[in-house]
Amino acid sequence: MANITFIEANGQSTTLNLADGWSLMQGATANGVDGIVGECGGSCACATCHCYVDELLAGVLPAPSQGELDMLENVVAERRPNSRLACQIKAGPALEGGVVHLPECQE
After folding, report:
1. How far apart are CA 51 and CA 83, in angstroms?
2. In angstroms, rounded to a whole number, what is the distance separating the alpha carbons of residues 24 and 27?
3. β-bridge partners, 84
4. What residues contact 86, with CB distance under 8 A and at least 6 apart?
5. Which domains does the chain have, with CATH numbers?
6. Counting beta carbons within 10 angstroms of the beta carbon of residue 45, is it exposed (0 to 12), middle (13 to 18) or buried (19 or more)?
7. pLDDT, tens digit (0-9, with 9 covering 90-100), for 29-75
8. Could you give the CA distance from residue 1 to residue 75 in angstroms, rounded to a whole number?
9. Which of 15, 38, 49, 82 could covalently link to 86 via disulfide, CB atoms 3.0 to 4.6 Å apart?
10. Bridge-partner residues for 90, per DSSP?
């Protein structure tokens, strides 16, 4: 389990305790966090779960796959060096205390 804080574009902060193996996209959509759409259901095919990870997460996450990098080319909001797709980030103890910022728009 990992406590992950999602900060929406309007500043609303929500901390979720996510089960190991759940993607951040699954956790956000299941708990009504605005700012994550997840149109493709987590198959890395839509880029509507674009997020910005904090330094803690950036330091422990594996590098994005080529498929994720390709999808990040299609994000609507500004792509940044810390841009990731929430469907590709799986919760686990190493992510404890991580913070994810959500862009103003996904579509």
Report:
1. 6
2. 5
3. 51
4. 23, 24, 25, 28, 36, 38, 49, 50, 51, 100
5. 2-101 (3.10.20.30)
6. middle
7. 999 999 999 999 999 999 999 999 999 999 999 999 999 999 999 99
8. 29
9. 49
10. 23
Task: Provide the CA 93 distance to its chain's centre, in angstroms.
Answer: 16
What residue has token string 């997460």? 57
**Placement of tokens 């149109």 in the chain:** 39
Residue 93 structure tokens? 């103890």
Q: Which residues of 49-74 are buried (b: 16+ CB within 10 A; e: fewer)?
A: bbbbbbeebeeebeebeeebeebbee
- Tokens standing for 89? 């980030």
Measured at the CA of 28, the angle between CA 9 and CA 45, to 5 degrees, comes to 90
- Residue 3 to residues 6, 39, 96, 107, Cα–Cα distance (Å): 10, 24, 5, 27
Q: Which two tokens stand for residue 74?
A: 């299609």
pTM: 0.95
Q: How far is 65 from 37, CA to CA, in rounded Å?
A: 21
pLDDT confidence of residue 107: 82
